[in-house]
Design the sequence.
C-alpha cells in the first residue's frame, strides 16, 4: 500500500514524456475513443515527441477518482464534478478543452404527468450529487419548489432504464442516452431539460494544472488531436459519418441515435467559440450556482467553511472564491492556439 | 524442536495476532502522511484523526439535509434488510434443503434447478429482479435472498443427505411417518447446520446488500459508501467499511454463540 | 414371536454377487447368532430382513406373509453405531416412539399423555440403569450406556423380531458381559425372534440358540467367476450343548474369517 | 410406502429434473408474449427467437468497430481474468492455509487477520482497490483474488488442522522434518480440498469479475452486460447470463472430474 | 533394544488428574501389554512415551537419558486407525521413510536411490504378504492389511521402542491371530522394547512378557476428590507361565474394565 500510494502521488511539477488520460462513455466524450482508435492521438503526440495513452473507464465516478488519486494526468468530466472531486480534494485542475455543454441532454422526466410542478411530493430517482441532482435543483427553483418537497432516491445510472420500467418509479432525472431510451416508453414526458439552463452543465477535458504547466506539449497534443477530430466528425461527408458511426457503436447505439444525442448537445466544434464561451460572463454565473449547490449539499468537504473555500479562476484574472486556494482554472490558451492554427 | 511443535503461549498468541493489524495501521499512517504532506486537501488516504472525527460526527450529529443521525439510520436500514434477507433465505433453504436431501422425488425434481441457480451471477440479472420485485425495500431483500439461498440450499441438502441412514431406518422401525421423521429427526439435526450455513452466508449477504443499496436507495451503509464515493470521501468510506466489518464479525459471533447454546448436543465446528 | 422364512434369496450389486442361495427357516423365539468373514454379507442379510434392501431374487416371509417393502415397527434394529438420536436426551430418545405413535401432526405428545410417556420412559431407564442419566445427551454417555439405550429404544416398540448388527463390537469385555446378561434377560422375557451379527465367536455360542456361519463357497468347486456368500453352517444348539460346542465351533470357523472379502 | 422410500427410476429422474426448467421457460414465454403484445418495442422480456438471433449474431458476426467476434473476445477476456484470479487465489490460499493450519506460530499471527479480511465486503473498498492496483487487467484479477482468497484460506486452514494428529506424529517418528511433512503429508492431502474450495469459489469469482468488468474494461462478458444494460438490451443480457451459467457449470464439472482423476485416494464429496 | 524408566509421572488436564504416581522400569527387549478400563489413561501414557504429551511432573528416561521433547525415529508407533498415509500407495507408504531420510529439499528420492528404496519396500511387502497390493491405496485394503502395512512402516525405521495402541481392535479373530504371529515374529527377530495397549486380555497374556494393568485407586481409600489412574498390577510372565496365568489374569481384571471413566 505504501508503495502504491507513493507511486500514485499527484504528479509533481516535472517534465515527462508519457501521459495518460481517461474518459467514460458520454456523447460529448465519445470523440476521445475515436481519437485513440483512429490514430489521431498518436499522430499528434508524435508531433510533440510524447506519448498519450487514452483509457476508457466504464464507471464515470471511478474515472474521476482515479484522476484525483493521480493515476491519470487528465480526465473528461463536468464542471461540477471537477469542482467537487479533484478541486475539492486539493488537486489543482485546469479545464483544457471545453468541448460542449448540455443543451437538452439532461432532463427531468415524469411518468403519466406532464407538468414540472406535478413533481411535488414524488420520489425522484437520480444519481445523487451528480449533474442530474443539480439540474433537479435548478428545475425545482424554477417552479418555486425546494428539495424538501420531494424525496431523492439515489439510483445507479446503469440501472435507470430498468428502474423506470418498475411501477415504483414515477419521476427520474438523468442524461442521454438514457433520456431518449426512457422517452420511448409509454407515458414518459420530459418536463424540464438542460436547454433551459444553457451553459451550466459543461463537459470538458480536465488536466492536472502542474503537469500542464511543466509540459505544455501535453496540452498542445491533446488540443490538436481533439480539434482535428472535431473537424472530421462535424463534416457531413463520408469521413464524418464514419467517425460518428464508430462513436455510435462504441456507445452501444447507431448513427441515428448518436446524431439525436448530438442534437441536444452544444458541441464547440470551432475552438474560437469555446474560447469566447470560457471568456464570457455566463460561465462565471454558472460556476457560482454550481459551487453554492455543492456547498449546500456538503460536497465541498468538511474543511470547507463556505462556498468560497475553493477558488475558481477564469480568463482575465477573474476569480470566484478564495484567491489563495485556486484549484479549478478555465484556461483558453490551448483552445486559442488551436483556433489560431499554431499547434 | 520442529517448528510445528512450537506452541506460542496464550500471551504471545495475543501479541502475534495483533502484529499484522498494527503493521497495516502503521503502513497506512505512513502512506497517509506522505500524501497529506504533498497535498493537505488529499482525500484518498485521510489521517486516522480525521476519520475518527468524521465517524464521531456521523454517529452523533444530525445530517444537514435530512436531520437524521446518518450512521444510525444507515445501520438500522442495512441491518433490517440484511436480517430480513437472511431470515427469508434461511427459511427457504431449510424447507428446500430438507425436501431435496430427504425425499428422493423432490431431489430429482429440484436439485438440478437449484444447482443451476447457484451458478447464475445475480448481479447480471438485476433488471429482471427490479421488474419482478420493484425498486424499494423488497428488491434489496430479494437480491440477498436470491444471492445466498441456492448455495445454502445445496449445503443443507447435502447435510440432510448425510444424516446416517441408520437413524432413518431406526426411526421407521419406531413407527415414524415421513412427516414425523422430518419434524423429529431431520429438522432438529439440520438446524445447527443452518446456523453454520448462515454464518458462511454472512459475507455474501453483505456483498449483495451493498450492491443493492448502491443501485437504488435512500439510506443504508452501502448507499452511503457509494454516495460519498462521488466526492472521494474516504474519511467516510473507510470508517464505514470498518464498521461493516465489525457488524459482520459481531453477527458471526452471535450466531456461533447461539448455536453453542441452542444445540448443546451438536459438536460445533470448533477453531477456525 | 414370529417365524421367519428365507426362501432361496440372492443379491447382486452392480453385477457382483453378494449373497446367493440363502435358505433359512427360523421358528418363533429363536436366537440366531450370525458369524462370518468381514465383507461376506452379514449386514446385507440383516438389511434384507429389515426391508432396507430388496433381494435380487427369492422371498422373505414373516409369519407366512411376504415382508413389507419398507422398515416397520414389527422389526426392531440395533446397529453398532448411530443407534440412538444424538439430538435427543436419553429420556427424549425413549419418549420418541410414543411421540411417533401419537399420530399428532407435530409428532409429539402434549400434556398428560406426555407426562405418562415420560414416566414410562423413566421406569424403563431405571430398569436398564440409566436413571441418573435421563437428561444427558448420547454423546455424554459411554458406549455401553448408549447401546443399553439403543436396545431399550428398540424394545419399546415390542418388535416381534429384533435385529442386532454387531451391537457390542465397540465395548469393553466387562461392559460386554453386562450387556449379554441384559439382552439374554430381555429375550427370555419377551420371547422375540432375534438375529444377532457378531465377530466374537464366543459371544455367538454364549447367546445364540442357533449359530449361522456365512461364507463364500463355489458349488461347482471350480473357479467359474465370483460367487456370493451363503449359509455354510447352521448349528442348532441345545442350551446344555452350547458350552461344550463353543470350543469345537470356534475351531471350526477359525479359518473361515481369515479370508476377507478383499481376497475374493 | 413412505414417500422417502419411493425412489424414482433413472428415466423419471431425468424427466422430473427437466420439469422445473421447462416450467420456467413456459412462464417466461407467456410473460414475454403478454408484454410484447402490449408494447411490441418492449425490451425487458424479449422473445426466445430474438434472443436466439442476437446470440447467433454475437457469436458469428464480426463487430463493426473492432472486427472481432464479440462473444468470443468477451469470453476469452473474461475466462483469462477468471482463470488468473482463481489461480492466484488458489496459490495464496494453499500457502497461507497450510501455514495457518499446520504451524502454530503462523496460525497465531495470521488467523485473526485472515478472519477479519474475510468479513470485509470487497465491493465497499472498490475505490481503494482500483487506486492501489490501477484500472487495467491487474485490478480485475485483484478484485477476484481479494474477494475469494480469505474464505478459501480459512477453509483450507481448517482442513489442514483436521488432518489426524496421528498422521503427523507418525511422520515424525519416521524422521520427517516440518518441511518434509509439509511437502509429503500435508500438501498432497490438502490438494483435493483445494479443488473443492475452488469449486465453491467459482460463484463468487464470477460475481467479482462481473463487478470489476462493469467498472473498468473494454471487453469481457461483464463489460458487455454493463454496456448494454443502459439500453435495457435484455436480448443480449439474458443469453449472456445463460452463457455465463453454462461456463460456470462446465468449469465446475471440469474441476470435479479433475479431482476424481487426480486424487483417486480421496473420497470425493459425492452427490450434491 | 532400549530400557525405559518412568519416574513417578503424573498428568492433570484442566485440573483433572488423569494419571498419577506411575513408576515403571522396563529392560531392553521386554514386551509390555497394557490393559485397563476405557478412558483410564492408557493412550495418554503411550502419548507421553512418544513425547506427544508432556507429563505434569516426573520424568521419562530412555536408555538413561531424558526423552526428547518431540517424537523421534527411535520410537515407532502404530495406532488403531489413521496409521498409514491415505494419499500414498502401499509401496509409497513404505518408501516414505527413505524419502524423509534422504534429506533432499523435496523430501523425495530420485533415480537409482529411489529404485533401491522401492526394491527394499517391495521385498518387505512380499514378506508381509502385501506384494500383490503394492500399487493400491490404503482405502482399498482390508483393516488387517492396513495394520500389516502400518507395522511394516513403523519397523522400517528400526525403532528401539515400538508403541502399539490397540493395533488389532478392528480386526477379525482370524486376521488377528495372523497379526499376532507377525508381531511376535518381528519382536523376536529385532528384540525391540514393545508397549502394546489392548482391550483383549487374552491377547495381552498371549503376547506380553509383562502385563501392566492401569486403574484408578485412591491411596487414602477415601473420597478426597477425583484420582488419576496408575499401574495397579504389574505381572511379569515367564513364557511358560503365560498360558496358565491367562485364565487367572482374565478373572483378575474382568471386573475392573466395567468401571468406565464415565463413572468417575
Ligand atoms: N452399495 C453397495 N455397493 C457395492 N457393494 C456393496 C454395497 N453394499 C455392500 N456391498 C458389498 O457387499 C459385501 C457385503 O457387505 P456387508 O456390509 O454385508 O458385509 P459384512 O458381512 O457385514 O461385513 P463386516 O463384518 O465387515 O460388517 C461387501 O463385499 C461389500 O463390499
Ligand atoms: N485433551 C484432553 N482434555 C481433557 N481430557 C482429556 C484429554 N485427553 C484425554 N483426556 C481424558 O483423559 C482420560 C484418558 O484418556 P485416554 O485416551 O488415555 O484413555 P484410554 O485409557 O486410552 O481409553 P480407551 O481405552 O477408551 O482408549 C480420559 O478420561 C479422557 O477424557
Ligand atoms: Mg457388517
Ligand atoms: Mg486409548
Sequence:
Amino acid at each position: 500500500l505504501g508503495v502504491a500510494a507513493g507511486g500514485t502521488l499527484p504528479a509533481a511539477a516535472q517534465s515527462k514524456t508519457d501521459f495518460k488520460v481517461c474518459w467514460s462513455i458520454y456523447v460529448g466524450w465519445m470523440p476521445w475513443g475515436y481519437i485513440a482508435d483512429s490514430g489521431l492521438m498518436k499522430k499528434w503526440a508524435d508531433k510533440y515527441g510524447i506519448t498519450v495513452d487514452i483509457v476508457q473507464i466504464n464507471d464515470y465516478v471511478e474515472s474521476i477518482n482515479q484522476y484525483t488519486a493521480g493515476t491519470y494526468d487528465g480526465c473528461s468530466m463536468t464542471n461540477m464534478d471537477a469542482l467537487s472531486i479533484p478541486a475539492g480534494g486539493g488537486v489543482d485542475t485546469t479545464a483544457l478543452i471545453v468541448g460542449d455543454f448540455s443543451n437538452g441532454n439532461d432532463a427531468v422526466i415524469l411518468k403519466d404527468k406532464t407538468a414540472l410542478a406535478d413533481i411535488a411530493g414524488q420520489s425522484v430517482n437520480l444519481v445523487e450529487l451528480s449533474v442530474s441532482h443539480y439540474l433537479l435543483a435548478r428545475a425545482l427553483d424554477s417552479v418555486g419548489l425546494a428539495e424538501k418537497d420531494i424525496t431523492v432516491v439515489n439510483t445507479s445510472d446503469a440501472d435507470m432504464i430498468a428502474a423506470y420500467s418498475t411501477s415504483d418509479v414515477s419521476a427520474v432525472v438523468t442524461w442521454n442516452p438514457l433520456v431518449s431510451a426512457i422517452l420511448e416508453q409509454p407515458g414518459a414526458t420530459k418536463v424540464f431539460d438542460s436547454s433551459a439552463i444553457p451553459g451550466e452543465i459543461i463537459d470538458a477535458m480536465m488536466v492536472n494544472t502542474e503537469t500542464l504547466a511543466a509540459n505544455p506539449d501535453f496540452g498542445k497534443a491533446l488540443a490538436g488531436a481533439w480539434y482535428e477530430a472535431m473537424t472530421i466528425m462535424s463534416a457531413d461527408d463520408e469521413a464524418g459519418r464514419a467517425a460518428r458511426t464508430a462513436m455510435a457503436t462504441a456507445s452501444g447505439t447507431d448513427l441515428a441515435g448518436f446524431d439525436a444525442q448530438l442534437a441536444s448537445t452544444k458541441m464547440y466544434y470551432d475552438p474560437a467559440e469555446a474560447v469566447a464561451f470560457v471568456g464570457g460572463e455566463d460561465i462565471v454565473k454558472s460556476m457560482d450556482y454550481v459551487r453554492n449547490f455543492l456547498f449546500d449539499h456538503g460536497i465541498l468537504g468538511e474543511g470547507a467553511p463556505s462556498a468560497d473555500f475553493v477558488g475558481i479562476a477564469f480568463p482575465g484574472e477573474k476569480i470566484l472564491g478564495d484567491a489563495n486556494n485556486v484549484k479549478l482554472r478555465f484556461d483558453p490558451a490551448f483552445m486559442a492556439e488551436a483556433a489560431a492554427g499554431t499547434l | 524442536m520442529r517448528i510445528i511443535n512450537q506452541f506460542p503461549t496464550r500471551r504471545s498468541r495475543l501479541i502475534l495476532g495483533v502484529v499484522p493489524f498494527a503493521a497495516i495501521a502503521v503502513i497506512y499512517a505512513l502512506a497517509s502522511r506522505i500524501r497529506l504532506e504533498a497535498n493537505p486537501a488529499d482525500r484518498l488516504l485521510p489521517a486516522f484523526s480525521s476519520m475518527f472525527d468524521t465517524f464521531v460526527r456521523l454517529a452523533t450529529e444530525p445530517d444537514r439535509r435530512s436531520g437524521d443521525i446518518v450512521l444510525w439510520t444507515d445501520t438500522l436500514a442495512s441491518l433490517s434488510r440484511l436480517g430480513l434477507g437472511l431470515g427469508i433465505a434461511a427459511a427457504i433453504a431449510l424447507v428446500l434443503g430438507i425436501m431435496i436431501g430427504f425425499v428422493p422425488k423432490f431431489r430429482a425434481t429440484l436439485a438440478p434447478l437449484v444447482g443451476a441457480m447457484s451458478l447464475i451471477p445475480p448481479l447480471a440479472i438485476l433488471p429482471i429482479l427490479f421488474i419482478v420485485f420493484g425498486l424499494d425495500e423488497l428488491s434489496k431483500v430479494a437480491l440477498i435472498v436470491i444471492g445466498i439461498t441456492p448455495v445454502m440450499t445445496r449445503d443443507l441438502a447435502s447435510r440432510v443427505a448425510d444424516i446416517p441412514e441408520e437413524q432413518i431406518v431406526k426411526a421407521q422401525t419406531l413407527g415414524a411417518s415421513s412427516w414425523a421423521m422430518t419434524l423429529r429427526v431431520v429438522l432438529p439435526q439440520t438446524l445447527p447446520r443452518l446456523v453454520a450455513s448462515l454464518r458462511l452466508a454472512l459475507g455474501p449477504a453483505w456483498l449483495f446488500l451493498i450492491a443493492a443499496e448502491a443501485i437504488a436507495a435512500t439510506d443504508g451503509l452501502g448507499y452511503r459508501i457509494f454516495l460519498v464515493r462521488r466526492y472521494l470521501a474516504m474519511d467516510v468510506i473507510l470508517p464505514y467499511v470498518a464498521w461493516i466489518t465489525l457488524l459482520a464479525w459481531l453477527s458471526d459471533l452471535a450466531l456461533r454463540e447461539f448455536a453453542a447454546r441452542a444445540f448443546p448436543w451438536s459438536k460445533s465446528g470448533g477453531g477456525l | 414371536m414370529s417365524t421367519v422364512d428365507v426362501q432361496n434369496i440372492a443379491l447382486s450389486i452392480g453385477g457382483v454377487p453378494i449373497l446367493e442361495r440363502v435358505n433359512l427357516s427360523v421358528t418363533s423365539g429363536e436366537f440366531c447368532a450370525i458369524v462370518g468373514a468381514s465383507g461376506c454379507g452379514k449386514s446385507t442379510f440383516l438389511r434384507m430382513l429389515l426391508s432396507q434392501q430388496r433381494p435380487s431374487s427369492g422371498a422373505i416371509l414373516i409369519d407366512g406373509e411376504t415382508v413389507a417393502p419398507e422398515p416397520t415397527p414389527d422389526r426392531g434394529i440395533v446397529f453398532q453405531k448411530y443407534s440412538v438420536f444424538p439430538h435427543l436426551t436419553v429420556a427424549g430418545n425413549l419418549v420418541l416412539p410414543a411421540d411417533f405413535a401419537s399420530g399428532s401432526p407435530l409428532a409429539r405428545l402434549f400434556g398428560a399423555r406426555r407426562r405418562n410417556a415420560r414416566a414410562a420412559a423413566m421406569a424403563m431407564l431405571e430398569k436398564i440403569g440409566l436413571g441418573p442419566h435421563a437428561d444427558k445427551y448420547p454423546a455424554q454417555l459411554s458406549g455401553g450406556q448408549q447401546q443399553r439405550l439403543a436396545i431399550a429404544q428398540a424394545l419399546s416398540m415390542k418388535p416381534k423380531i429384533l435385529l442386532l448388527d454387531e451391537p457390542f463390537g465397540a465395548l469393553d469385555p466387562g461392559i460386554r458381559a453386562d450387556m449379554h446378561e441384559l439382552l439374554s434377560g430381555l429375550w427370555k422375557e419377551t420371547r422375540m425372534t432375534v438375529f444377532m451379527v457378531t465377530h466374537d465367536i464366543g459371544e455367538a455360542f454364549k447367546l445364540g440358540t442357533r449359530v449361522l456361519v456365512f461364507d463364500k463357497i463355489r458349488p461347482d468347486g471350480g473357479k467359474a467367476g465370483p460367487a456370493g456368500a451363503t449359509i455354510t453352517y447352521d448349528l442348532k444348539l441345545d442350551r446344555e450343548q452350547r458350552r461344550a460346542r463353543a470350543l469345537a465351533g470356534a475351531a471350526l470357523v477359525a479359518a473361515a474369517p481369515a479370508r476377507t472379502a478383499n481376497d475374493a
Notes: The mean pLDDT of chain E is 83. The beta strands of chain E are 4-13, 16-26, 31-36, 57-62, 65-66, 75-78, 161-165, 193-197, 210-216, 229-236.
